[in-house]
Amino acid sequence: METTLGFLDYLQYSVAAFLTLCVFSFLWRDNVFYKLAEAIFVGTSVGYTLGLYYKTLAYPRLVLPLFYQGKIHYVLACVLGVLYLTRFSRKYGWLSRWPMALLIGFGSGMTIPYAIQAQVFKQLSASMLPLWSSAGFEFNNFLIVLGVLCTLFYFFFSIEHKGKLVKIPVRIGIIYIMISFGATFGYTVMARFALLIGRINFLWYTWLGSIFGFHA
Amino acid sequence: MLRINVRYVYLIVFIAVTIPMIFQPNLPTVTSPSVEMLYKEIESLPRGSRVILSLDYDPSTEPELQPMAEAILRHCFRRGIRVFGMTMNLQGQNLGTKVFSKVAKAFHIPDDGTMYVYAGFRVGPVLLQMGEDIIETFQTDFVQRDLRSLPMMQGVKNLRDFELCISLSGTSIGYSWINWPGTRYGKKIALGVTGVLVTNYIPFLQSGQLVGLLPGIKGAAEYEHLIGYEKGRGKQAMGSQSAAHLLIILLIIVGNVIYFMGRREERRQGQ
Question: Do strands B82-87 and B50-56 pair parallel, antiparallel, or not at all (unpaired)?
Fold first, then answer.
């Protein structure tokens, strides 16, 4: 689908492309263009975030109900929020513990029961698998059970990892952990390249393509 | 022997990524079971069903996750499935409007709240609140239209009125989707995550807590392949991605060979 681009679109793409190249220039060495891009990024992201927080959080959730809709009880939330700022005072810094206590208490109460259920109990039951079924020996299940047991064994530090009975499962546990690290590293390489490809794609097709009229 | 100017490596990587991007080789795409699971899940939904698509990412992970969002949206719209869009990431809420309007335009779907609603970001324990009352949680969509007035939201009370929840993120927000909508409210959950996080979430597939998992840009490419969208950004990236991976494998082998040769040389000199 062809869309007509205006001057502002080209300008927007060009500024983004310039800043991308400024950041890439760090690969050669640290330089003034990189520092410029870094400073612009920090400044704009802080400003953008503050603006967003006000527009999305503070205004509709506090300013609007308290000052325009007359919901006086919102004062309590406002006071609790302001107490956070007392951290900057040595004398009154202890007051900031109240909103923090409320938040931590609420957060923990809300998170812990379901996290334990979803991430401990369900995971535990998913690793208790039958090794034999009507089809015979379940090799995949065996690999999972072996991996869970041996990896747990590796993290059992109450006894020294000596002697064949202990060393063999610990070794197997290490192999499982190494495979997991390898898989994570492989996926991380893929993720980092995806970001690079995304930027080069932008430079080639979105920026240069829009100027010279070619596309993917 | 090991002292190679790293800039040459950067240059080689740049060339390896750029050339396939320009020539766009048509590489075969093999789909993985976790991606097929999500595809089949959406295929099995009846026309008119509602799903939640939470775009929980910001610009830093957009190249990996936006192609997934686009592919899933295309699939849903093609199947006549209505989508409730939202985000748990404040900085990424504008990306949502972009992808929704792009795909809706491609399918000639008007932005009248019939086929999709994009509600943006809300603060607080949103996932818990959604389990009780979605309308009360969001109240308006991203352009401040009252949710009660939108056709898609008629008869919607809470999470129970949605068949499936899909979250795309580059953070640990996926755990929250598994904990609350998944465990507390018993909803089917699917995730699309950045490559870095894939291994964290694979155990939830095996335990049945996820009905699908899209792993990074590869997951996006596979999903595009499944829905027959060959011009997607995921598929486009696969040539460059494959070349870059081959290069990394080559560099690891060369690096190790040089290292061991250097060690042998040192040992010989020591003797």
Answer: parallel
